[in-house]
TrEMBL record:
Annotated ranges, domain RTR1-type: 1-74
InterPro entries: Rtr1/RPAP2, Rtr1/RPAP2_dom, Rtr1/RPAP2_sf
Coiled-coil region(s): none
Protein name as it appears in the record: RNA polymerase II subunit B1 CTD phosphatase RPAP2 homolog
Keywords attached to this entry: Hydrolase, Metal-binding, Nucleus, Protein phosphatase, Zinc, Zinc-finger
Length: 79
């Protein structure tokens, strides 16, 4: 979602209903778990939110949105 990216660039939490600041990070692409000897790819998407709760709430909101723009869908809800 472009809204999340725009808010992150403005140093605001990516969740549209949250106004908390976020720190723009340039973090590593991978996370190494020395104890279990595994390498994990780090998701930069989570860093665009002030907390895990806002990230999850944003995912729920995103799932409810239609991917097709309104002007392409036409007048399907007319009576």
């Amino acid at each position: 979602m472009e809204v999340v990216e725009e808010r992150y660039i403005s140093k605001i939490c990516g969740f549209p209903l949250c106004s908390n600041p976020v720190e723009v990070k340039f973090s590593q692409k991978y996370r190494i778990d020395v104890k279990n000897k595994k390498v994990y790819e780090r998701s930069a998407e989570v860093d665009k939110f002030c907390c895990q709760n806002c990230f999850l709430r944003s995912a729920v909101l995103r799932a409810q949105l239609d991917t097709e723009p309104l002007w392409i869908r036409g007048d399907e809800h007319s009576t």
